[in-house]
Specification:
Number of helices: 24
Order of helices and strands: EEHHHHHHHHHHHHHHHHHHHHHEEHHH
Oligomer: single chain
Helix content: over 70%
Low-confidence stretches: 1-12
Number of strands: 4
Largest sheet: 2 strands, antiparallel
Mean pLDDT: 88
Distance between the termini: 33 Å
Strand content: under 5%
Strand order of the largest sheet: 1-2
């Protein structure tokens, strides 16, 4: 049944048939996410060339493929997620898409690690608009019974884009270097040209996104809700000040001397940890970025608790939400590490030609991820209809099932077996995404979904993306040997170390499975402070 709100789109009850326009919007969002991951993951197929050209180590590349992007993606996702809850989401996505496309193109002008790192940070800031707006839009275009499926379809763009990025990157590098063996216009080499070529089309897609309609918030839940902030842009800059030092100290002081003292104490502890890890690893950019990220998250959570206690209670005060996010964050740690390092591994360890591995791994990643995320989303919705915590079982599968394929795939010398096991590991791991994302969306009220998405992506980025590629690179360097005065990493050992995170993820998800039914049933009461 449809009801009407004056001057707005129709509002559907949860049982209503999903209109065709919802599927059209979902299709456009999938295209956005495909481009999102082309821009994000193309650095993987370019890694060997970048490493040689800029004289970097595996851990340096792990930073460029991980924390350089992830920390700024996660941190700006916080205020941008809140902005998605209060501002026009279509407009926000349009602006973000334009920003990350420009920054991807600027990556092609980088001449050293510093300039490339700054460009990748800019990509992270722009891409931080994508999923908070998309998840919130999808939740208002699709009813709860189909939400995991719709989010899974959207998430397929992750794997399609990641796979296409390998093929496109290798094709551009080969074509450019063949045409300009000594460097092309302005001295640009193949990997730089690749960034330029994939960045520019995003500006055209942004014009298409701008034509989408903004849906009524909460419409598909039968509970229309207006944005809660009368001045969303002012609220955005206020939220931004809660995560950017030293403004974080000003915000803490405004909450009182005790809040300031706690904030300073946490900042000191984070600085000490950062200093210690830099001493141990010698990697200043990685641990500086991670330290900044975790301190900023603490500052934001403290501010959220004071300013918006209802949202705080449903996110940070809900163990089921935290354990689901961290459990999936460890799944994403392995997934991001494999997505980044599988191509350099095949090129340097198995000695496979770049064109071959890019085509096969790209097709592998696109197909396995697409199948996994769609099957996982459908299975998650089916299980949820029979068990309130049924979606957690799919996330657990995503933790356990890839272990054997990873072990076999990264110990064999047979390229066919490597490709086959990489396919299975990717497909099994991908099943968890739709289930995890939909679970966190169901644990908050409709006006909080953008913020919940930002919090969920803190786990996938500050846990998964920040540490997955870097951990493999670091262990590779530590296990490597020096040949002709240069460090040659042991990527096989680095990748196999990913298996060690599975027991921790499993423990978190078992707890979430037990806690979730009561947490979801009491959302309204806990938001009101009644429990």
């Amino acid at each position: 049944m449809l009801t009407e709100l004056s001057g707005s789109d129709p509002v559907a009850t949860p049982e209503a048939r999903v209109p065709a326009y919802s599927w059209y919007v979902l299709g456009v969002l999938v295209l956005v996410y495909i481009l999102n991951f082309i821009d994000r993951q193309i650095v993987s197929i370019l890694a060997v060339d970048i490493k040689a050209d800029l004289n970097l180590t595996d851990s340096d590349m792990g930073f460029l493929g991980g924390a350089a992007f992830a920390v700024f993606y996660a941190l700006f996702g916080i205020p941008l997620g809140r902005l998605a809850d209060n501002w026009n989401r279509v407009r926000l996505l349009t602006v973000g898409l334009a920003i990350w496309s420009v920054m991807t193109a600027l990556s092609g002008l980088a001449r050293n690690q510093v300039s490339l790192s700054l460009a990748r940070m800019g990509v992270g800031v722009g891409e931080a608009t994508a999923s908070p707006t998309a998840y919130s839009l999808i939740s208002d275009y699709f009813p709860k019974r189909q939400r995991a499926t719709a989010i899974a379809i959207y998430s397929s763009g992750l794997y399609l884009g990641g796979g296409v990025s390998l093929f496109i990157g290798a094709l551009i590098v080969k074509g450019w270097n063949s045409a300009y063996p000594d460097g092309g216009p302005f001295g640009l080499v193949g990997w730089q040209a690749a960034f330029l070529v994939v960045g520019i089309p995003g500006l055209l897609l942004a014009l298409w996104v701008a034509t989408l309609r903004e849906p009524v918030r909460g419409a598909m839940d039968g509970a229309p809700a207006a944005p809660r902030s009368p001045n969303p842009l002012r609220a955005f800059f206020s939220d931004l000040s809660t995560i950017v030092p030293p403004f974080t100290l000003i915000g803490a002081w405004q909450r009182g001397p005790a809040a300031l003292a706690i904030n300073v104490a946490v900042a000191a502890a984070v600085m000490a940890f950062t200093w210690a890890m830099i001493r141990v690893t010698g990697n200043v950019p990685q641990w500086s970025a991670v330290g900044l990220g975790y301190y900023a998250v603490f500052s934001w959570a403290s501010t959220l608790r004071a300013r918006d206690p209802a949202t705080y209670r449903l996110i940070w005060g809900t163990p089921a939400f935290i354990c689901t996010t961290l459990g999936y964050g460890l799944v994403s740690l392995a997934a991001y590490a494999l997505a980044f390092w599988s191509a350099p591994y095949a090129e340097t360890v198995l000695r496979l030609p770049k064109q071959e591995l890019a085509f096969i791994l790209g097709a592998n990643g696109a197909l396995s991820g697409f199948l996994g995320v769609i099957i996982g989303g459908r299975l998650a919705d089916w299980l949820r209809a029979r068990d309130p915590a049924g979606r957690i079982l799919v996330i657990i599968f995503g933790v356990v099932a890839p272990i054997i394929p990873i072990w076999i795939g990264y110990t064999t010398e047979n390229s066919t077996l490597f490709y086959a096991m990489n396919f299975l590991a990717g497909m099994f791991g991908a099943t968890a995404l739709g289930a995890a994302a939909a679970t966190t969306q169901d644990l908050v009220l409709p006006p909080m979904r953008g913020t919940a998405t930002a919090a969920f992506f803190l786990g996938t980025t500050l846990v998964g993306l920040s540490f997955g590629p870097y951990m493999v690179g670091l262990i590779s360097d530590l296990s490597g040997t020096v040949t002709n005065g240069k460090l040659v990493g042991d990527l096989r050992t680095g990748i196999l170390s990913l298996i060690a995170v599975a027991p921790v993820a499993l423990a978190l998800l078992i707890y979430a499975y037990r806690a979730l039914p009561d947490a979801e049933a009491s959302v309204a009461q806990r938001a009101a402070g009644e429990r």
